[in-house]
From TrEMBL:
Cofactor: FAD
UniProt xrefs under PANTHER family: PROLINE DEHYDROGENASE 1, MITOCHONDRIAL (PTHR13914:SF0), PROLINE OXIDASE (PTHR13914)
Gene Ontology molecular function: nucleotide binding; proline dehydrogenase activity
Name used for this protein in its record: proline dehydrogenase
Species for this entry: Tumebacillus flagellatus
Length: 312
């Protein structure tokens, strides 16, 4: 019953978030009502300040300039410019952070050529600064083209580019096997998945997603490739700790990742235990889609916002 309820809740939130009245209200008042808990500011300066504070507590970071689904090349270049600014700011400030991005924000839906042009601009700079760029996996409709582009960029830029893999998709294990066998170094961020997908391509039952998630974590750890375990689930964290200890996998071959504003005490505890803990730090004006997915993940996040709405 609880699984059905959570599934219904998630679908409801994602559906409601598309309503023009709701989106207009949240976009106008959301940051004041509590979205700032999950988004590290609107400007890059604000984000770098938060990264510095996280670094002081021993946490490393991946910065993400929020944005997706641009509709013309000018918008795509603006998003590209923002990514270049992130890499410059990280270099100049000396903070410990890499960067993640969504290729739809760089013109993927306009054409592969536009997106590749922008990706190469970003990765040229990442290579110059010896930094790293993570390509986010988006909805199912974009997976094949994302994989195609990643393969091309991986051959060109090697260790400077990585990918996100989603556990709730049926195809995931096969995709991972191919990547692990193709590349000498394949840094993957493993997540459960946050998009609303058809049961024809994704597990509908949370228990099945959880089972596959543990499977791909073990699979990638044993492959010898670097593994980023992105989770807030204590069961997954404890399972990973026990698994790496059992198989003598050193701590420098994997890391835990969590979202900015979610379980900060646990993040700091993992650092104290000697693990690399990376915080995903989003910022920017186009925060609404990201924020909607965070609310859809947990009723507790929705209650946090509602509480702020009625606070005097």
């Amino acid at each position: 019953m609880r699984l059905i309820t959570m599934s219904f809740y998630r679908k409801l939130v994602l559906s409601v978030s598309g309503n023009k009245v709701v989106s207009g209200f949240i976009k106008k008042y959301g940051m004041k009502l509590g979205a700032a808990r999950f988004v590290a500011g609107v400007t890059l300066k604000e984000a770098i300040e938060q990264v510095n504070l996280l670094n002081q507590d021993g946490l490393v970071v991946t910065l993400d300039h929020l944005g997706e689904f641009v509709f013309d090349e000018q918008e795509a270049f603006a998003s590209t410019r923002a990514c270049l600014d992130v890499l410059d700011a990280v270099k100049q400030s000396g903070v410990k952070s890499n960067m993640s991005l969504k290729m739809t924000s760089l013109g993927l839906d306009l054409s592969k050529e536009v997106c590749m042009k922008h990706m190469r601009m970003i990765l040229d700079k990442a290579r110059e600064y010896d930094n790293f760029v993570r390509i986010d996996m988006e909805d199912y409709a974009h997976i094949d083209i994302t994989m195609e582009i990643f393969d091309e960029l991986k051959r060109e830029y090697g260790k400077h580019v990585g990918l996100v893999i989603q556990a709730y998709l049926f195809r995931t294990v096969d995709d991972m096997k191919r990547l692990e066998e193709t590349y000498e170094h394949c840094n993957l961020r493993l997540v459960k998945g946050a998009y609303l997908e058809s049961p024809k391509v994704a597990y509908a039952d949370k228990a099945d997603v959880d089972k596959n998630y543990l499977k791909i974590i073990e699979m990638h750890l044993l492959s010898g490739h670097y593994t980023a375990v992105a989770t807030h689930d204590d069961n997954v964290i404890n399972h990973t700790k026990a698994f790496v200890q059992k198989h003598n996998i050193p701590n420098d071959r994997f890391e835990f990742q969590m979202l900015y504003g979610v379980r900060p005490e646990t993040q700091r505890q993992l650092v104290k235990e000697g693990y690399t803990m990376r915080v995903y730090v989003p910022y920017g004006n186009d925060w609404y889609g990201y924020f909607s997915r965070r609310i859809a993940e947990s009723p507790a996040n929705a209650f946090f916002i509602l509480k702020n709405m009625f606070r005097k």
